[in-house]
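Re: the 222-residue chain
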Amino acid sequence: MYKILIVEDDEIISREIASFLSTWGYDTKRVVQFDKVVETWMDYGADLVLMDISLPYKNGFYWTEKIRTYSKVPIVFISSANDNMNIVMAIARGADDFIAKPFDSQVLVAKIQAILRRTYDFSGKTDLLTHKDVQFNIGDNVVSYNGQSVELTKNEGKILRLLMEKKDTIVSRKELMEYLWKTDYYVDENALSVNVNRVRKKLERIGIVDFVQTRKGIGYIV
């Protein structure tokens, strides 16, 4: 399930977008603290951002530039300020697309689907990864072992997926961070370690011990 962050201060519009996208199977989160857009995006781990231009505190151009210092996550502007200058400025700041308000919800979904396909194309890869009797279904983020199973969060699943796809090979912290957050830099240096430890604890619930091993100063291996 892809996660979409909605940065829109009109509560009616943001709720309508969130409700409509949920019917298409997307997980959504609405920004409510508009002085903490970047923090909300990081905590949520969005796969795509819908960004308005006119916002409290700082405008959408500002927040897009801030996000772009950390990540290449797709950003789509949704705004009634759709003159050519604003469109050019949005693209120049790093936006991937611009949709003028009022817009057709079906058009919004079509554009989101197209951008997500271009950005996250995992076609051709198996839905089931197996290593040392551990099975991981990447379709539903469920790990199975000795008749037991546990569900991972999206980020936990991405960590285990990359490690299992590269089993018996050390995966560097930089590569994992790039895979998780589309960047090799993150505000909290311990963010990756915290996520890896969460994976380990969940695996231990079903008897999988010492599966994800640390190679100090290098990365991780399974």
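The chain has a mean pLDDT of 86.
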